[in-house]
TrEMBL record:
This is AMP-binding protein. Keywords: ATP-binding, Nucleotide-binding. InterPro entries: AMP-binding_CS, AMP-dep_synth/lig_dom, ANL_N_sf. The keyword Signal does not apply. Residues 24-458 form the AMP-dependent synthetase/ligase domain. It comes from the Bacteria.
Length: 635
């Protein structure tokens, strides 16, 4: 375990690695270059970071200046980030999927002076809006042939290729200056502004200090001490999001782990087989897809293959239950588990590269049945919970003590409280030290205070005061409780549906019940101030096509919703069956099947794939009203 006593800023972490953990010539970054994987050493990474720092010092960039990044995960992100942070500049990473209007707002609100651009598409987007970005001086493309793309007339911002930055000479005098600035940085200095995607309202720039990030990494490594300098992480979640930034990038900078960059989400499975990672950060949706495909593949066609698959899962569950209860599984069950491993589990694990110690799931709640499925296979999935405003981790699963359906134990050094939504009375406060395996409490809003909490929202004192109360509690807006000593998330406070009879319904647990159906890919629950619940359902395209032999043209039809009775009845069958797991007021009474998924491009999802409730309810108001004009019982 790394000692953090002297290493309290983001750029100091990587310097510690080359001084105390690895030889400078050892591999740090891995990426696909043409047809081969290229390995980049710690030494080369730091040389390029110094060149970036030297270039910007020449251009007059000083401590506190905001510097933008709009680029997919890659070594270039690391060179730029390490370069600007060691001279005290502030990382402002922007989601590549944001609209021109949103990008303009963030560039202007933060006052970005230079921005790194990762693709021709993003380059065109930024050059188009450059004249409306008052502080933007430099646009820095990382790709070749950027000159072939025409620029708007009169654009004032200068275009400088990233290769020019990387080739900037660094004299000994300049290197000493960079070292002086880096070592003078304080833990309280700002490291990054991360703009919240938000399901409503204007994006807010979350101010995160070096201390926020470093302390978060430190305590997460204490909670999951099996991560060491031999790990290889596969990075594919966006570095513009705080989860991947901390859980992969900063953890690897602290421990000296290798980072391999996936080529794309489409090539992720192929990259996993090639890189053979030992750790991955992921989101629940990916794990749900792996779960669905494994179940479908294992049971397809029935017969002996299906029976063996289901038998193996049953044995895996029995074995896991014994181990988690602290009991010896016994000779016979252990022998059955070995057979299940050889016949079924090993084949699934091979597709992940065969070396995974664990996956860390964050960004949303992982359905309990999905976590248990991976546990039955012997693939450990740890869950973490937090927000951008908490840098991000507040709680994370301990490696040897897992409670499915929870997000783990409170991290060291902070307090998490549960506050009654109506009375505002604090029901309970838990810390890392007060952990008890059997402890439970009532649910309420999750509040937190301690080293993980942001400094505030950039340029927004009123919003900061609203989020952080006079006692320094940050109000997360999430509903939860403690269950078996671990934090359990119920839903978002703003998502709560209050029906016409005053019954409170939290959509997420209800939606998760219906999402057990392999026929359903997404489900959006409706019912605020209504007599009963309805839903907009997105079917699993692959399953739907296979069941009804549908051509691709079916999904390109102009009608937004599918009204074919056979398909409606097919979905209704699963809705009716799964409704039995819910209270009557939580059951869906009617639904519509949307032909295509909600999307970021249509403004229906945030960049982190959360549904924008107000947008969806407004956009489909007429269709929603139709569901309440004629009730259709499906439960």
């Amino acid at each position: 375990m790394v000692s953090f006593n002297e290493f309290s800023t983001v750029p100091s972490l990587l310097r510690n690695v080359v001084e105390n953990i690895h030889k400078p010539t050892e591999t740090f970054l891995i990426h696909k270059k043409n047809a081969d994987w290229e390995e980049i050493s710690f030494e080369k990474t730091l040389e390029r970071a110094d060149a970036v720092a030297s270039f910007f010092l020449d251009k007059g960039i000083v401590k506190g200046d905001r510097m933008g990044l709009m680029i997919e995960n890659s070594p270039d992100y690391v060179y730029y980030d390490q370069g600007i942070q060691q001279i005290g500049a502030i990382n402002v990473s922007i989601y590549p999927t944001l609209s021109e209007q949103e990008v303009t707002y963030i560039i202007n609100d933060s006052g970005i002076r230079a921005i790194l651009i990762g693709s021709p598409f993003l380059y065109k987007k930024v050059t188009k809006i450059a004249e409306n970005c008052r502080n933007l001086e430099y646009i820095i493309p990382v790709f070749a042939d950027y000159e072939k793309i025409a620029l708007p007339e009169g654009m004032k911002a200068k275009v400088i290729p990233f290769s020019t930055l990387l080739e900037t000479p660094v004299s000994e005098v300049r290197r000493a200056e960079i070292t002086r600035i880096r070592t003078a940085l304080r833990p309280s200095d700002i490291s990054s502004l991360i703009y919240t995607s938000g399901t409503t309202g204007t994006p807010k720039g979350v101010i995160l200090s070096h201390n926020n990030f470093v302390q978060n990494v430190k305590v997460c490594l204490q909670q999951i001490p099996i991560i060491d300098e031999t790990e290889t992480f596969l990075s594919f979640l966006p570095l513009s999001h705080v989860f991947e930034r901390t859980a992969t990038y900063h953890v690897c900078c602290a421990q000296g782990c290798k980072i391999a960059y996936a080529q794309s989400l489409e090539l992720l499975a192929k990259n996993m087989a090639e890189i053979k990672p030992t750790v991955m950060s992921c989101v629940p949706r990916l794990l749900e897809r792996i779960h669905d495909k494994a179940i479908k593949s294992g049971t397809a066609g029935g017969g002996l293959k299906s029976k063996i698959f289901l038998w193996a899962l049953d044995i895996g569950q029995k074995y896991r239950n014994e181990k988690e209860a602290g009991r010896n599984p016994g000779l016979f069950l252990s022998a059955e588990k070995a057979i299940a491993e050889k016949l079924v589990f090993s084949k699934i694990k091979e597709k992940t590269g065969g070396r995974l110690k664990f996956m860390l799931s964050g960004g949303a709640a992982l359905p309990k049945n999905v976590g248990e499925f991976f546990g039955n296979l012997g693939i450990k999935v740890l869950e973490g919970f937090g927000l951008t405003e908490t840098s991000p981790v507040m709680a994370v699963t301990e490696y040897d003590r897992q409670v499915y359906g929870t997000v783990g134990r409170v991290i060291p050094g902070i307090e998490i409280g549960i506050q009654d939504v109506e009375t505002k009375k604090i029901i309970n406060i838990q810390t890392h030290e007060t952990f008890q395996e059997g402890f439970e409490c009532e649910e309420g809003e999750i509040i937190v205070r301690g080293h993980c909490v942001m400094q505030g929202y950039f340029n927004k004192p009123a919003e900061t005061a609203e989020a952080i109360d006079k006692d320094n509690w940050f109000h997360t807006g999430d509903i939860g409780r403690f269950y078996k000593g671990n934090l359990q998330i119920t839903d978002r406070l703003k998502n709560m549906i209050v029906n016409a009879y005053g019954k409170n319904v939290y959509p997420t647990p209800v939606e998760n019940v219906y999402l057990k159906s392999p026929k359903i890919d997404q489900l959006f629950l409706i019912g605020d101030k209504r007599e009963y619940l309805t839903a907009i359902i997105i079917p699993n395209k692959e399953t739907l096509q296979e069941e009804f032999k549908l051509p691709e043209s079916f999904f390109q039809q102009p009608q937004l919703f599918i009204e074919d009775k056979e398909i409606v009845d097919w979905i209704a069958k699963d809705i009716k069956k799964l409704s039995n797991e819910l209270a009557k007021f939580e059951r869906i009474k009617n639904f519509k099947i949307k032909r295509n998924p909600f999307s970021i491009e249509d403004g229906e999802l945030t960049p982190t794939m959360k549904a924008k409730r107000k947008v969806i309810e407004t956009k489909y108001a007429a269709n929603i009203d139709e569901m309440y004009e004629e009730e259709v019982e499906v439960d």
